[in-house]
Automatic annotation (TrEMBL):
Gene: purD
Protein name in UniProt: Phosphoribosylamine--glycine ligase
Pathway: Purine metabolism; IMP biosynthesis via de novo pathway; N(1)-(5-phospho-D-ribosyl)glycinamide from 5-phospho-alpha-D-ribose 1-diphosphate: step 2/2
Enzyme Commission number(s): 6.3.4.13
Catalytic activities: 5-phospho-beta-D-ribosylamine + glycine + ATP = N(1)-(5-phospho-beta-D-ribosyl)glycinamide + ADP + phosphate + H(+)
GO molecular function per UniProt: ATP binding; metal ion binding; phosphoribosylamine-glycine ligase activity
Gene3D superfamilies noted in UniProt: 3.40.50.20, ATP-grasp fold, A domain, ATP-grasp fold, B domain, Phosphoribosylglycinamide synthetase, C-terminal domain
Organism placement in taxonomy: Bacteria, Pseudomonadati, Bacteroidota, Flavobacteriia, Flavobacteriales
Stored HAMAP family: GARS (MF_00138)
Organism: Apibacter adventoris
């Protein structure tokens, strides 16, 4: 079994680890991978869709898994399928559910998916006039892909004016900011629900809770995620029922009505309020770092799940009755400026799972290369036990100027 995994973060390392664990004879290729994936497979450096498709044909890939939102939006699934190559993910049209916030909100509105009230604009004057008369806080989002940085939570009209100026006038996100979505601010707690879509039904994974802010207590700047717990201790049976009724089933109805008959991942970013469960966003690939916390709890063979989805077969998921806590070890200064190239020490002392996110391998030594460097994952019979294992192990690992939150999993 030859498998190509496209991406270079902790998510891709975790996917590769799970596949290799279940299928020891699988040959893994990563584009472009990192220092962790280099130890379980082969890193390649093809970047364009055409290069990746040619490589997959030449190597007779049995499956390709895509972690890049940009490649999905650019239609990598369409190109691979036209060449008869098996690939997991949404086609170009369906990928717009992640690639365009305006497209996604219109889809939600059309099919009755519960979401925050919103309006979209393509010019600064109209957008600012609308924003000046809204209740605050207010959420302003660049429409397109902005590397996770296109969302502004504005506490007053002055912050809204600045955000709109940067997005629409100064074009700090390029063409991703040609349109903006302005929506109401929801108060509650967030939950992440990954799922697999086989063209017929959406099968949800266990719940997770991400921690987005750089500082303890969810303070400071937004990041790509500083830690995850799974299952989410606040997401109860009543929330599952509301999610199924108000979000999952209307989404499924919409996918079928719009002929979005792909096979792949749907990530539901949720906000749970006093008024119910709301959908914040769709992502059309595995979450990061949610994947690193969730996959260690999955009992099924991951390759079987992916192949069954592509073949439109029924999927039944089984989970360990355990808890996981994933803590991100980051470079000091992240998510702003940070230095890299520091040797990572102490990994040999770790007695739990860890996944490499931003590090490269040189002479069998790992050096930092990114803001989020690695993920340490504790598994336990309780949330407290999993948390204890994760933090006991992260203290064994060191590189210059490292940083991590100390409150992941606290209740």
């Amino acid at each position: 079994m030859n498998v190509l995994i496209i991406g270079n973060g902790g998510r891709e390392h975790a996917i590769g680890w799970k596949i290799k664990k279940d299928n020891p004879d699988a040959k893994l290729y990563f584009s472009s991978g990192n220092g962790g994936t280099a130890k379980i497979g082969k890193n390649i450096n093809f970047g364009t869709i055409e290069e990746l498709a040619d490589f997959s044909e030449k190597k007779q890939m049995d499956l390709t898994i895509v972690g890049s939102e940009a490649l999905l939006v650019d239609g990598i699934v369409n190109v691979f399928q036209e060449k008869g190559l098996r690939i997991l993910g949404p086609d170009k049209k369906s990928a717009q559910l992640e690639g365009s916030k305006e497209f996604a909100k219109k889809f939600m509105s059309k099919y009755g998916v519960k979401t925050a009230k919103y309006k979209t604009f393509n010019n600064y004057t109209d957008a600012n006039n609308y924003a000046q008369n809204q209740k605050y806080p207010l959420v302003i989002k660049a429409d397109g892909l902005a590397a996770g940085k296109g969302v502004f939570i504005c506490k007053d009209e002055f912050e809204a004016e600045k955000a709109l100026d940067e997005i629409l006038n100064k074009q700090i996100f390029g063409s991703a900011g040609n349109h903006v979505v302005i929506e109401e601010y929801l108060v509650g707690f967030e939950a992440s629900i990954l799922s697999i879509f086989n063209g017929n039904e959406i099968i949800p994974f266990i719940s997770a809770k991400d921690h987005k802010k750089i500082g303890n207590g969810e303070l400071g700047l937004n990041t790509g995620g500083m830690g995850v717990v799974s299952p989410n201790p606040f997401f109860m049976d009543k929330h599952w029922e509301a999610f199924n009724k108000d979000i999952l089933q209307p989404t499924l109805e919409g996918l079928k009505a719009e002929n979005m008959n792909f096979s792949g991942i749907i990530f539901f970013g949720l906000m749970i309020t006093q008024d119910g469960v709301y959908l914040l966003e769709y992502n059309m690939r595995m979450g990061d770092p949610e994947t690193q916390a969730i996959l260690p709890l999955l009992e099924n063979n991951l390759l079987d799940i992916f192949n069954d989805a592509i073949d439109n077969k029924p999927i039944y998921l089984n989970w360990q009755n355990k808890h996981s806590v994933c803590v991100v070890l980051a470079s000091g200064g992240y998510p702003l400026n940070y230095d890299s190239g520091f040797e990572i020490n102490g990994l040999q002392k770790a007695t739990c799972l860890y996944f490499i996110a931003g590090a490269f391998l040189n002479n069998n030594i790992l050096y930092t290369s990114g803001g989020r460097v690695l993920n340490v994952v504790g598994i336990g019979n309780s949330l407290e036990e999993a948390r204890k294992i994760a933090y006991q192990n992260i203290e064994k690992i060191h590189f210059d100027y490292n940083y991590y939150r100390t409150d992941i999993g606290e209740i």
